């Protein structure tokens, strides 16, 4: 009997998951694996953990839900707190695995893991799929990733003109019960990941809960129950409350829902409820998400370099005291402090807030932008390597912003928080 292994990473869903679907189509027996990689929970050189408590909790919830949904398909999800390249070879040998299915990744840390696995399992067939994009890399109108433009609008227009978003891939058919294997593995808790448990701050903009089912509940609420999508563009610069933007980022980041699924929900909404600038704008933002992924595909590790993808030498400083003040919300700007307090207390910050906080750190204080990006990587519930480092480069003058703008923080606060409601909420302890 042929056995395939689906190795989950940032594609934690059963719907529209080509890797899972292919594994189920090609093999009579399918086993699923997820590894909480200890390297992702270690401390960075700045002293904070690479993955902080908000994202870790969201991930734990996501894995629990994935396990339930796979159970419905009679597929056992084995969960480990171990490096993939250490445990997967053992499973592959024990279960006579013929092929491993996974989401294609291209940043160095992920590539190293895949290379180590391949080295240890030279006879196994590795099948990877780009399942994180809106516009599939095989469909874009560029012959080579090197042709991806530096300017977003150029990229967007060409994609909109020439690329059709693919159809969603259905949930695989249920396997027979005999597909289940003995599974004593357990999802680790926050303590086992070296993190403290916490109570949610009552001021939080949104109570994020991980898992594919929760992502679809949010779609149901934001699109269908409240039709908030029909005013998305007008409200997306908001700072308080759960409805000013879609809040889909955390589920998108760990792949609990695909950009393709969201796109088709927008199209359905436009067909059944209303079609306007606001509904289009959610797609516009999903294209930004793609753009940063294509930027990192093109530029590789340059997205982590001080001089960025522009290879621009600027006069950067770095002091650990400044970093601490910025993180503690003790800068001279109340609007920056309020935003940084929000992210520290909840793991979330609006897009408007992120732009201002980034601009203040990199362009006002001229501090090494990578330290700010690393802090966001630690605390964000929705951290995505390409979106985070891409946006940070953009707002720090070493990325894709052709205008190299600096935010006037006071003006921004007057415009987006005219009654100080936001600042008052987040400056109070
Ligand atoms: C400095 C900085 C760091 C950021 N880091 C991240 C990150 O780690 N992960 C992340 O998902 N987003 C990041 N963003 C982008 C954006 O702020 C968040 O996606 C957004 O605030 C999440 O809220 P939402 O889902 O309600 O967004 P919505 O406004 O509802 O947007 C819908 C979706 O579009 C995508 N999107 C929207 N804006 C952007 C953008 N500027 N860049 C890329 N994708 C976008 C997201 O997937 C988002 O979920 C960052 C922005 C800045 C300025």
Automatic annotation (TrEMBL):
Q: Name one Pfam family in it.
A: FAD_binding_7
- Where does the chain bind FAD? 232, 245-249, 285-292, 382-384
Q: Which domain of life is it from?
A: Bacteria
Instruction: List the keywords (alphabetical).
Output: Chromophore, Coiled coil, FAD, Flavoprotein
Please give the cofactor(s) recorded in the UniProt entry for this protein.
FAD; (6R)-5,10-methylene-5,6,7,8-tetrahydrofolate
A Gene Ontology biological process term: photoreactive repair
SUPFAM superfamilies, per the entry: Cryptochrome/photolyase FAD-binding domain, Cryptochrome/photolyase, N-terminal domain
GO terms for molecular function, please?
A: deoxyribodipyrimidine photo-lyase activity; DNA binding; FAD binding
UniProt KW Phosphoprotein keyword: no
Which residue numbers mark the site Electron transfer via tryptophanyl radical? Answer: 316, 369, 392
Coiled coil regions, renumbered to chain: 56-83
The cross-references to InterPro entries, in alphabetical order and at most eight, read: Cry_DASH, Crypto/Photolyase_FAD-like_sf, Crypto/Photolyase_N_sf, Cryptochr/Photolyase_FAD-bd, Cryptochrome/DNA_photolyase_1, DNA_photolyase_N, Rossmann-like_a/b/a_fold
Q: Which ranges carry the Photolyase/cryptochrome alpha/beta domain?
A: 2-134
Keyword Flavoprotein assigned: yes
Cofactor, how bound (note): Binds 1 FAD per subunit.
The entry's family comment says: Belongs to the DNA photolyase class-1 family.
Q: Entry's NCBIfam families?
A: crypto_DASH
Its annotated function is as follows: May have a photoreceptor function.
Protein name listed in UniProt: Cryptochrome DASH
Per the UniProt record, the source organism is Zunongwangia profunda (strain DSM 18752 / CCTCC AB 206139 / SM-A87) (Wangia profunda)
Identify the taxonomic lineage of the organism of origin. Answer: Bacteria, Pseudomonadati, Bacteroidota, Flavobacteriia, Flavobacteriales
């Amino acid at each position: 009997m042929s056995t395939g292994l689906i190795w989950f990473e940032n594609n934690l869903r059963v719907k529209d998951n080509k890797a899972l679907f292919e594994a189920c189509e090609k093999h009579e027996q399918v086993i699923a694996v997820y590894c909480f990689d200890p390297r992702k929970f270690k401390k960075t050189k700045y002293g904070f953990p690479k993955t902080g408590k908000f994202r870790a909790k969201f991930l734990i919830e996501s894995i629990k839900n994935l396990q339930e949904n796979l159970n419905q398909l009679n597929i056992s999800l084995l969960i480990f707190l171990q490096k993939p390249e250490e445990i997967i070879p053992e499973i592959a040998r024990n279960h006579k695995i013929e092929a491993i299915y996974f989401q294609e990744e291209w940043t160095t840390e992920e590539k190293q893991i895949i290379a180590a696995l391949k080295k240890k399992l030279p006879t196994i067939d590795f099948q990877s799929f780009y399942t994180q994009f809106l516009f599939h890399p095989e469909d874009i109108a560029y012959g080579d990733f090197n042709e991806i433009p530096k300017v977003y609008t150029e990229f967007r227009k060409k994609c909109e003109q020439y690329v059709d978003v693919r159809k969603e891939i259905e949930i695989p058919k249920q396997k027979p019960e005999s597909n289940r294997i003995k599974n004593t593995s357990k999802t680790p808790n926050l303590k086992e990941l070296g993190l403290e448990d916490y109570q949610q701050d009552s001021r939080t903009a949104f109570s994020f809960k991980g898992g594919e089912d929760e992502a679809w509940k949010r779609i149901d609420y934001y699109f269908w129950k409240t039709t908030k999508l029909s005013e998305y563009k007008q409200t997306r610069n908001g700072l308080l409350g759960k409805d000013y933007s879609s809040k889909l980022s955390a589920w998108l980041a760990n792949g609990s829902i695909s950009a393709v699924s969201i796109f088709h929900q927008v199209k359905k909404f436009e067909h059944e409820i209303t079609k306007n600038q606001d509904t289009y704008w959610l797609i516009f933002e999903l294209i930004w998400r793609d753009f940063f992924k294509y930027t990192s595909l093109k530029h590789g590790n340059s997205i982590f370099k001080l001089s960025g993808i522009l290879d621009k030498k600027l006069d950067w400083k770095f002091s650990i005291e400044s970093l601490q003040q910025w993180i503690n919300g003790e800068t001279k700007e109340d609007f920056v402090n309020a935003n940084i307090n929000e992210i520290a207390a909840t793991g979330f910050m609006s897009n408007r807030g992120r732009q201002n906080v980034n601009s203040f750190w990199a362009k006002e204080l001229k501090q090494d932008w990578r330290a700010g990006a690393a802090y966001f990587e630690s605390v964000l519930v929705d951290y995505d390597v390409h979106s985070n480092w891409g946006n940070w480069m953009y707002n720090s003058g070493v990325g894709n912003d052709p205008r190299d703008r600096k935010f006037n923080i006071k003006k921004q606060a007057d415009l987006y928080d005219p009654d100080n409601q936001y600042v008052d909420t987040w400056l109070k302890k």
